[in-house]
Design brief:
about 260 residues, mainly alpha
Length: about 260
């Protein structure tokens, strides 16, 4: 039975990540059909939750508090610069990561965990089929790629919520976009997409590893899914802090008011 200590778990995840990186580019690339299946299932399950959550968070907590603050100062036209920071840098990748972990990560972990407890993974190895290449690689590539795509959807949905806030407060839409694009830079968008890709890679590796190391029958599958979600959410928080600090330290221009 595989070890369950924290260091053993982290080491297993790192080892799995290295195997995925190697086998995703090393011939034969036989995971194409499974990749297509995973892409369709992931898009179908995650697109609507990301759009609705991004819109709700942008219009709700962020919109109400930000608009009230800027109205108090008589600077409602500066709402665009605030939303550039709120949506592009923070909310969009964070919402994407939470949805991917809660919806897609749990499904991946449950699927692989069920296969593991039914000895399907062992059967694949007996047949000479590499489970990492055939099962893990397409899932990791799917989660990383779709996470980047969903980040774009989250940004657009967040801006839709912001526009509703602007209209609700009787502010100028043109002034909103003027301040938004004055603050927005290609670096901000690139960092948002990269952060989403990092989130996706970590979530996929964590959930795949927990699924492949499941033991204890159906109850073990439930435990693995719960542990995978908790680890993924903790990783999301850690990545958000480290990534943001590194980004601001290496690009001080992002901290300057524009």
């Amino acid at each position: 039975m595989a070890g369950t200590g924290p260091l053993v778990q982290v080491g297993g995840m790192v080892q799995l990540a290295l195997q995925v990186a190697a086998r995703s580019v090393r011939p034969p690339l036989t995971y194409g059909p499974e990749l297509a299946v995973q892409v369709r299932a992931t898009v179908r399950a995650a697109v609507l939750p990301v759009i609705l959550t991004s819109f709700a968070l942008s219009f709700g907590p962020a919109g109400i508090q930000a608009s009230a603050f800027f109205s108090l100062l008589g600077a409602i036209d500066r709402l665009g610069s605030a939303y550039e920071l709120i949506v592009v840098r923070e909310f969009a990748p964070l919402v994407t990561a939470i949805i991917m972990a809660g919806v897609i990560g749990t499904a991946i972990c449950a699927d692989l965990g069920a296969r593991q407890v039914r000895d399907e993974i062992s059967a694949l190895r007996v047949l000479g089929i590499d489970p990492v290449r055939s099962l893990v690689v397409p899932r990791v590539l799917t989660v990383v790629g779709i996470a980047v795509l969903l980040d774009v959807f989250a940004i657009v949905s967040g801006l839709a919520g912001a526009l509703l806030v602007v209209v609700q407060n009787g502010a100028s839409v043109s002034a909103f976009f003027t301040t938004f694009f004055a603050a927005a830079t290609p670096l901000e968008l690139a960092s948002s997409l990269v952060k989403s890709a990092v989130y996706g890679a970590v979530i996929a590796i964590v959930c795949c590893h927990k699924g492949l190391t499941t033991s204890g029958g159906p109850e073990g599958v439930g435990r693995s899914v719960n542990e995978a979600v908790v680890i993924a959410f903790l990783a999301i928080g850690a990545i958000d802090y480290v990534f943001s600090q590194m980004l601001l330290a290496t690009h001080p221009i992002l901290s300057e008011p524009r």
